[in-house]
Amino acid sequence: MLKQYLLTALRSFRRNKVSALINVAGLVIGICASVVIFLIVRYDFGFDKFEPGVDRLYRVVTDMRMNGESYPNGGVPGVLPDAIRTDLTGVETVTTFYEHDATVLPAKAARPFKGQTDIVFADAHYFPMFGYRWLAGDPHQDLKAPGQVILTESRARVYFPGLTPEQVLGKTIVYDDTVHTAVTGVVADLTQNTDLHYKEFISYPTLTGQLKNIWSHEWNSVYGTQRCFVRLSPGMTKVQVDKGLARIRARYADDTSSVYSLQPMNDLHFNATYYPLGARTANKAALFGLLAAGLFLLLLACINYINLTTAQAGQRAKEIGIRKTMGSTRWQLVRRFLGETLVLTLLATVIGAALTPTLLKIFADFTPEGIVFHPFAAPGVLAFLAALTVVVSLMAGFYPAWVLAGLKPIAVLKNQMGATKSRKAWLRKTLTVFQFVIAQVFVLGTLLVSKQVYYALHKDLGYRKDAIVFVNLPWNVYAAADHRNHTLLNKVNTLPGVEYASLGGMPPASDNYNAMGITYKEGPQEIKIQPEFREGDTNYIRVYGLRLLAGQNLPSSDTPREYLINQTLARTLGFRDPHQALGHHVLDGEDHSHLIVGVVSDFYQTSLRSPIKPLMIHGGDNNSYTLHLSLQKGADWTKTIAGIKAAYKTLYPDDDFDYTFFDKSIAAMYTTEQNTARLLAWATGLSIVISCLGLLGLVLFTTRQRTKEIGVRKVLGASVARIVALLSSDFLKLVALAFVIAVPLSYWGIHVWLDNFADRTTISWWVFAAGGGIILLMALFTLSFQTIRAAKANPVKSLRSE
Predict the structure, then answer these.
(1) Could you tell me which residues come within 8 angstroms of residue 769 by beta carbon, excluding any fewer than 6 positions away?
(2) Of the residues 242, 270, 298, the one at which a domain ends
(3) Is the pLDDT of residue 417 over 50?
(4) Band of pLDDT at residue 212, cut at 50, 70 and 90
(5) Model pTM?
(6) Are 448 and 676 a contacting pair, CB within 8 Å?
(7) pLDDT reported for residue 453
(8) What is the residue range of 326's domain?
(9) Residues 6 or more apart whose Cβ sits within 8 Å of residue 154
(10) Helix or strand run (H / E) with residue 400
(11) Are 624 and 503 in contact, with CB atoms under 8 Å apart?
(12) Is residue 39 within 8 Å of 381, Cβ to Cβ?
């Protein structure tokens, strides 16, 4: 029986080669895109599912509140974890760790490992909380004393190649030429998808022993890299613990503008509001959008199959009539036609699976590194392919099979199928409109998302972006003041091609977040807030072209006590006019008084997704670790940067020189939006291709059906243009109707998406006109292939055709 179905299917494909190729091409595109989307979604939704008791695991985060706005931070004060242990009931385990990058020198290594990442200072509760497997060492004695370090198996192989985990125990590792540790344990790497990407775990007492002044008793300072996780006791709820955290804040902190709360472990990978642990976060809305895009592409391919199969029903009518007169039942015919669809879909699935690795390479820039396609090594992928084949076969094949099998044998043999053809024509028109609605929505979405990205990259953000580079200098968290950075600054200032040079902290706009608690007192009034801050010397605002609205620039001083503030902070402190803020003092967290000497114009501290926040700029100290340079326009920047590198290497011969152009760092903030635009562009292209393939198939069928009509019209004097217009008009009406339906859908969708931005572009009318024009041109281009050819055909041959 199966062999008979296969042979019948192959004969049918051979008789209808063009429609079979169109159907296979559409299904290949839809299936290939669906497999890639399945791999992405499966990867992201698989994060941190393996942790023991994951439903009770939470990260403690901080929301700093002022003037009705919340400023989220994924870190906590260093003193909070101990307070949770002693003062909060309902918490089973608490762990804290501090993220750090370092230069690492293992024992007897020929050279240090510079800029090593994935290092944390972790307390003794870290490993009991998370699901690591021990390969060597005593889990009960880990990370309790200063000078201990635990390595993952992969990092142990890097530092001590050829040694077993047991042989690594006791080996010495020195961090940043200052901290000496001994390896007390080796754990297996986490092979499952996780945001816990750390490879080296230094005992937390090592950190507190080195930095007692910072990590002692400060409640009003929040460190973004200071993490705290808790496991709740069975039966406890997030709401109960959040209330307990509020009581801790009220008891110990004199500033109650901050709120501590719990973030579920299964939310870490999808929530970019707080500092993420991993290199990337996924967006659930975007993932569901990908799923919708994959489903739409499959629907488009299925619609092509339905349209072409039902349109060609007349060509198989006599076969159906004969089979039914010979005793075939309707369900037998349905199974036969579904078998044909299954064969065609299986062929498309095989081709799509073969093309998937190539498509993954094309999308490599914005797909997670962990995504690979091994259908036979991953049962889930193979099961998805099998399910996809069956579902697509049913979606595409059931209705045509039901229609074909339902034809009346007497009507078929007498050519009395007019009513049936009419009903199928209306269905084909409806499905064609649906196809072009999807394609039109994709086109308009691509144009509007690209417009927002362009707007963000070209808007005046309040600072200069072009011809600026910044260099991160070596920085040792344990060392005393390093005056080499000032020496480098003086050398760089003498180089040709350097306009201004400044020593400070991070640039005006950054994905990082630094905040400081300050207090402003004016008579009985007292305002406590935690504005963001930037560090920079006198040239900082000159390098970045920040506009001074009132007062003066920061003076040159080794002990800076002056602040510049932005307009938003001035308004927050109650000053309507920037000049009114000058001469007033604010207190920092240690009650040191600072003078407001100037007010700068507002600028965006991060992407346009976030509003402008209160900010202050204060003078950098001897540990300022970033060199900011504005380059002279017209100068040879290659030589200038080479000179900077030479000066750098004379002072830091053992460190790598690395620099970043500021405009590129700004563009990197919109990577998500740029990737969204690229994915939409791909989805748009694929949907247009599938829709146009279906349109081409229908045009081929229509012109074939109207061959004699075209010949008669030509004999009676109709021009080629007239015939082309006649053949194209019905299809173009469908495209126009699709445009009318797609416009409000696109407007609503992009309006929702733009709500994620504090500053956004306008939804211009010309975008809709351009989107409609693109679809119209593509439809005309597709139609012209066959309509012009049919209109130019010799009418004598047309009238002779049967």
Answers:
(1) none
(2) 270
(3) no
(4) very low
(5) 0.75
(6) no
(7) 85
(8) 1-47+285-416
(9) 189, 199
(10) helix 379-405
(11) yes
(12) yes
